[in-house]
Design a protein that fits this description.
The chain is an alpha/beta fold. Helices cover 34% and strands 18% of the residues. It has 6 helices and 7 strands; from the N terminus they run E-E-H-E-H-H-E-H-E-E-H-E-H. It is globular.
Length: 205
């Protein structure tokens, strides 16, 4: 695990990586450092398949969902109390967190680039639980995310517990096109500020 921010912070955010990049990817490092600068403790970790990649160098596909979900449950139990934790992460890691958020009683859910559907597929198999989600949730999403653009997400039935923060012209990693005239550093700053505001406004601080 990697830890950023003060050890005595009121809130701990636990972030999982996406399907293809590790916990120390530039995206994950930027988010962790940014939230840490807001006085939030951030814990990053890796699922078993990604941890194995460090030792054997093989780019294996993600573990099956039961392993990913059990990894989340074990982490929450070990880092708790759950009522002081916000869980989530990038893409797949955040989606897996959304599947255990209600059952584990965490304080919040924070996802950067929610994969509402697989490439070229519809969202039917991935978002059914999102209509009933009770955990306060923030999804930071690029408006042209190929796995859930603003136009697509507008048609989904999502729980009122979910807040969406749109990053203009952002892709799945929130990066805008050069032609848009928007900068990636600014997009990430917006994402981090939105995430920090969400966490620090949670009840029970």
């Amino acid at each position: 695990m990697l830890i950023d921010g003060p050890a005595d912070a009121a809130w701990t955010v636990v972030l999982a990586h996406g399907a293809g990049a590790p916990m120390d990817s530039p995206f994950m490092a930027t988010v962790a450092a940014g939230l840490g600068a807001h006085g939030i403790r951030v814990v990053r970790f890796e699922f078993p398949y990604m941890a194995r990649r460090r030792s054997d160098g093989r780019k294996a596909p993600p573990d099956r969902a039961p392993i990913l979900l059990e990894t989340w449950r074990e982490l929450i139990a070990g880092l708790g109390p759950a009522s002081r934790l916000v869980i989530g992460g990038k893409s797949m890691g955040g989606r897996m967190a959304s599947l255990v958020a209600d059952e584990t009683g965490v304080a919040g859910l924070l996802v950067f680039g929610f994969p509402f559907h697989a490439p070229g597929k519809d969202a039917a198999g991935r978002i059914g639980h999102m209509a009933e989600l009770k955990t306060p949730t923030l999804i930071v999403q690029g408006t042209r995310d190929a796995l859930g653009s603003r136009e697509e997400v507008a048609g989904y039935a999502l729980s009122p517990a979910i807040t969406l923060r749109w990053i203009e012209d952002g892709d799945h990693s929130l990066k805008p096109r050069k032609a848009s005239g928007l900068g990636y550093d600014d997009a990430m700053a917006q994402a981090i500020q939105a995430a920090a505001d969400f966490v620090l406004a949670l009840p029970g601080r």
